[in-house]
Known about the structure:
Structural class: alpha+beta
Number of strands: 9
Strand content: 15-25%
Radius of gyration: 16 Å
Helix content: 25-40%
Strand order of the largest sheet: 7-8-5-4-3-6-9
Order of helices and strands: HEEHEEEEEEEHH
Shape: globular
Distance between the termini: 37 Å
Amino acid sequence: MQQFNNDTKSLFSYSFHILLVLRLDYKFDGKHIEWQYLEVVRKAIAAGFFANACRLEPYSYNGMYKTVRTSQEVYVHPSSVLFRVNPKWVIYNSLVSTDRQYMRNVISIDPSWLREAAPHFYQHQQPNPIAH
């Protein structure tokens, strides 16, 4: 629990630093930050990590995703806030191998952002076509 608290404080501090550096508008009520430009930040992350996009497998009972690039089976890491949330599309930063391949540093995305950010990459992708 202590590690979770430390990680949360670190993430909060880092997020707040981003807000200040980028001079983004925000509202803070003492507990929650409301980013006015959250979607812009998520789109920027998707543009930078477009090759790490994954789609939730239809009818997946266990939260299995497949990477768009290689159709590799991956799962959201249990320490993630998105664990068991199962958004349809995600971008990850890194994979951790245990008994499964787990995605770390995961955000949900809109799949249309992928074609917008990297049309050269997604133009001919066949394994997991980009569709809602």
